[in-house]
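Model the whole thing, not chain by chain.
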Amino acid sequence: MGTARERGEEIVDKTKDLVGSAVEGAKNLGRTAIEAAKEAGNSLLERGREFMKGVGEKAKAKFNALKESLSGAAGFCKEKALDALYTAIGGTANSAEKGVDFAKKDIAQTVDDAKRGVDFAKKDVAQTVEDAKAAAEAVKSGAKTGARAVKTGAQVAAFAGVMAVGVGAELTIRAAAKGVELGKLGLEAGKKGVETVIKEGGAVIEVAKAIAEVGYDLASEQAKKMMEASVNLAKRGYDLTSEKGKAALKTCGAMIDKGVDVAVFLAEGATEKAVAAFDKTVEIYGKAEGKVKEIFGKGVEAYNALKDTIRSAKDSFSAYWNRHRLLKAELQSTKEEVAALRQLLEARGLLETARNEAPASESAA
Amino acid sequence: MTREELKTLVEGSPLETGMKNEWIKRIESEELTKEFYDELIDAVQANIDQEFAKAGVSDENDPEVKEKYQGMLDQIKVANDKYNATMEDLSKQTAQVQAGADKDFSQLTADIVKGNLP
């Protein structure tokens, strides 16, 4: 056992060790706490980024699923419309077959009628020969009377010739006046003709526009066939610039795609039932297509509204956070670092302004 | 903002060279939609975050920042829930349109076969 001084020194050393360990321990604990806090902070941001990424991806997937579903519904309606029209075309074919049968019967009847006609003609010929003999006798007797008539006729003709000159002149004057009048009428008709050509030319352009608007290349064979069909549609009272008219054009397009000669199908003389089926098909198809468009419009609106909310929320937070950090940077960072940060923040602000004026990638149009 | 103005902005910014080149290529070839700008802004913001970190500014643990960040996430969540409900409703409406058209066309076909059309 040492002296009291030695024990005192020993206690001091142990105390120093303990204090050293405690300080080291506290330092370690502090570091752990700081790292944990940092990790917690980063974890929040990390989770947030993951969340936003997930929202964006799922929203896009849902929107694409809706588009696919709407496209499927439109395709389904198109096929159903064609099924109905094929049924109607089948009816037309049956009617045509019946027509052929009628025609065959008509031809047989015509042959019978012709035979009877020949018999009548034979009888007529015999009668005609008899009549001719009688006529020959009449001619002989008439010759004598004729000689007298020639003499009298010559005298009458000479007188009539003198009169005819005067009458002819008057008639010529009247004819000339009539000619002028007819010329005026012709001019009027010509003007109307020109107006009609201009008007119909305009109508053709309108039809071409409508065909282009429903998505057909005007240089394509399909568009040419649709131009032909559009004449029949117009005759049936379709306004091709209206929604109903466009639905009719699309129905025609679908029929042409399937190899149906729409112009013939809709032409005058086609069975009324087939054309009535076409009208009804256009009505149902047009109604369904209108609803599909409406739903798509609502989907686009909802998708864009979600994206706008995300943008607005992110812009608002970023503006706050960037400002918050910039204040700290101004106190503790170099001038160059602060200048670079300011330039980036300014660029971000300009991009936000430009983005707000840009079109959305999804549009209901 | 025109394509040229946007290119000038990106070229003149303190973005990293590789990033600038990548974005200039995209600006020249892609449609400049809101979504395009969203991506570009996200890239610029990521660069801003890096620059703050380099400058020694880090405040992710600040309770106020955390609160604001959580507020942003909550706002997005509400909008997302509303969007999901709308899309579900539109999906049902689509099925109804298809079923309705199916019924109408079946009736039409039956009328054609029976000769019931006017």
